[in-house]
Structures are given as structure tokens and as C-alpha cells.
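Trying the structure run again after the queue cleared.
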Amino acid sequence: MQAEAPEAFSIESESEATRRLYGIDQEHTRAFGSQCLMARRLVERGVLFVQFFFGANGWEQHSNLRGGHSRKCAATDLPIAGLLRDFKMRGLLDETLVLWGGDFGRTTTAEGDSDGRNHHPYDFTMWIAGGGVRGGIVHGSMDEFGWSAIRDKVHVHDLHATILHLMGIDNERLTYHYAGRDYRLTDVHGRVVNEILA
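Done. C-alpha cells:
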């Protein structure tokens, strides 16, 4: 690890074109772009799981939703597009699953007297690319108020079952009995969302 890790994290060796692709040449995209580029470098070296996140406070916008999210989108859109494009150019996207999401959404109504939004676990969006997922589709929809999922709902257990399936793991085969009930990697629920698979 001490011999291999320094080279893997050395993004200075990348070309100027690659650094531009990830937005490392721009102040507002540099930090997240560097993470995306390091993720690509780790994947191409055989690392099986890479996780990185945006900022210390993520997408917490209990106030100033429009301004806060606008800045965060500007800082992340170019780098994540660069990562997907780079994976595709290098032939890595078909075998690499990329998941973008958070732990919940935001309400569609203002929080208190502020222009922020509260936590909202009933309806939120995630996207997945590569790794056996069909591209260019939208699965599921919400009601006219953006409050509840109403069509093709995907529970977190379903998402986990689908990710495991794409990794070649059948979550139902890894069931074990403990403390009077059965458990598995997706608790006791979760179906593979076949509708999004390539």
C-alpha cells in the first residue's frame, strides 16, 4: 500500500486535457474534480469500491436553497460529467457502477420563515450509470406536489438489492437466522429493480 498508493493519488501526472475535463483548472470545481479524478485512477488500478462525497455539509439547505444548491451544482456537474465521460472513453463504464445520491430529499415547501427546505424521506432522486444499468431512462415519478412517490417506487432495500445483483450477489441467498428472525444484506426486504437493468 505504501508503495502503490502515492502514485495512484498523484493527479499531477495527468494531462492538461484530463485536468480540464474534470474541472481541476477552475477554482469552483477543483476540489470535487480532484476527487472524481482520483476515483477514476483508483478504479483503473483495480480498486473495487470507491466512495467520495461533496463538502462537509453536503446538500444541507435549511436556508438559502436556491443559492446554496446553485453553487453546489456548479461545483459538481462538470466533474461528475468528466468522470462518466472518462470512464466511457477508457472502456470502464460498462463494468463500473456509478451511484449519485444522498440520504433523503428536500421538501417542496419552505422551512419556517426561511427560503430553505426540510429533510424529506418520502420522495427523492438518485441516479445510477454504467455497470449494467440502462442509460437514458427515468424510473418512477412523484405526485403533482412533489411530496410522495406514486409510480414505480423504489425502496432503499430495493436499491441495495439491485446494487448487489449488479455486483453478482443474490441478496436472498445470504439469509441467516439471528435473535428469532431472518436477516439478509437488505434486511428482510428488497427486490431487484429489473426495469432499470440493461
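The mean pLDDT is 90. Worth checking whether this holds up in the mutant runs.
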